Each structure stands twice: as structure tokens, then as C-alpha cells.
Amino acid sequence: MTSQVVTVDGHRVSLSNLDKVIYPDGTTKGEVLHYYATHGDVLLPHLRDRPLSLLRYPDGPEGERFFTKHVPPGTPEWVTARDVPRSGGGTMRQVLVQDLPSLVWVANLVVELHTPQWRVTDPGVADRLVLDLDPGEPATIVDCCRVALWLRDRLAADGLTAYAKTSGAKGLHLLCPLRPVPSADSSDYARRLATEAARELPDLAIAAMARRLRPGRVFIDHSQNAARKTTATPYTLRARAAPTVSAPVTWEEVASCGSPAELDIRLPDVAGRLAEHGELLAGLATGEGAAPLAPH
């Protein structure tokens, strides 16, 4: 197996097993590392100051997968780590990916990157709202797009700007920059909005967690706004059967989507999409246009 030590912005990073096949289509660990290293400019603004949770799949998506929030053993001293409040009390130490060397180091672990809707500088105070649209078969991402358009317009009525990205799995994520608000308040708003959408789109959307209600409809998961929850970070690779990416999409793509294949975005597609569209989530990353939540 090919391994090497590289220097990234003055830090030595050991990269292992570069020719190891990670995805069934033949994508190697070296290609995964190259993806993260070359897209650091769009990834890092969504990672900085957000405690990182890692879904590790070192032997590929069909091998062992395990989720961790704790700082992994062997973490270099130059990688930032902070004590983060635990939901049950006390703290745990988590990694922050603040720079390109840290991103390359964590990518070598073969991970999905997950982050909360708040920053470590203000734990439990949300600066983003997220709605995870999850289709229940035979519904698909096409149905998620129909729900997303309704939600976009409803959020706009409350002064919020929605950005869309694929989940990298079956559905869509909608995200809005917020003026900082306690996570409990953003959770309550998201729950009320999901309930309203389910009422207005009864044959298309549900807000209830019960899996027996999901077939053929889109579950609007509002729970990821809770302070203890995390969401797949923009541009992260996913531990799926193919190297899919949780990638931003235009509202034109959402409105015109007629087939799941149209929003099936994979590792080789991202560079071309960035060249064509630019960073569609730039406003989300900077908090441009962040708005307060509407009152009850």
C-alpha cells in the first residue's frame, strides 16, 4: 500500500494506504484525499469553529462504520481541539478543522464530516437552521424538490434565505443563516414549520417521526436543530455505495428536477460544478443576510 508524508502549510501530515480502494466504483483513498485537499477553500468556511463529529469508514462503505465525537487517538498537537458541553452535563473534547493541514489529516481517517448548527465560541446558540428532507420509498428526491420549493417560499415569507444541497444520500437539506438564537428556539421554529408544511401538503410531506407513515412521502426532519445533533457538512463525501457528495444545488435545478439522477452529485462532478456555478453556499458560510426567527 502506498503511503507518504506531505507538508501542508508547514505541517507534516502522514498519509497512508493511498492506493486502497474505498468505493466499489474503484475510487481510492488517494482520490478521496485529493478531493478534500483541492476543495479546502469551499469546505473550510463551513467547518471552522464547529466541533466535528466523524463517521469513519476506513474499509469503505461496505466495511465497518463507526461514529465518534471524541478527539481520535494520535491526533497531532497542531490540530485544534476544544472542550464542548455535553447534553447530559460535563464536557467532551472535540476536533475543530480550522485549516487545510487539519482537513487533510482528518480526511486521511476516511470520514464523513458532520457539524452542529452552532459554533464553539457560542455553544448551543444556532447561527443556522436546517431542514432534512428524507423521501420514503417510492418517493424520491424529485418529491423532496417539490417540498423544498414550498419551504423556500414559506421561509422567505418569514425573512429567511434558504440554500439547498443534496444530502448525498436520498434527499435534500435546506439551510438558512440565522441571527444567533438559542438552539431550543430554532428547534421549535423548525418543528412548527415542518408541521405547517405537512398540513399544507398532506399527500406529499409528513413531520412525524413514525416510519410507518413515511412510504410515498417526504419526512421533514427538523430534529437536527437540537444543540446535540449534527448534519452532514456541505461538500463532505458520504459513506454510500458510490462516492456521493453533500453538494449545493441551484434553485433552478431543484425546480426542474425530473429524475433522481439529475441531482446525483459525486466526487468527480464537484470541480466542474464549482467552475460553472461558483460556491453556491458562500452566503451561508459568511452569514450574509442572516435574519431573526419569526415570533410565535
Automatic annotation (TrEMBL):
<dbReference type="InterPro" id="IPR033649">
    <property type="entry name" value="MtLigD_Pol-like"/>
</dbReference>
<dbReference type="InterPro" id="IPR014145">
    <property type="entry name" value="LigD_pol_dom"/>
</dbReference>
<protein>
    <submittedName>
        <fullName>Non-homologous end-joining DNA ligase</fullName>
        <ecNumber>6.5.1.1</ecNumber>
    </submittedName>
</protein>
<dbReference type="GO" id="GO:0003910">
    <property type="term" value="F:DNA ligase (ATP) activity"/>
</dbReference>
<feature type="domain" description="DNA ligase D polymerase">
    <location>
        <begin position="28"/>
        <end position="280"/>
    </location>
</feature>
<dbReference type="InterPro" id="IPR052171">
    <property type="entry name" value="NHEJ_LigD"/>
</dbReference>
<keyword id="KW-0436">Ligase</keyword>
<dbReference type="Pfam" id="PF21686">
    <property type="entry name" value="LigD_Prim-Pol"/>
</dbReference>
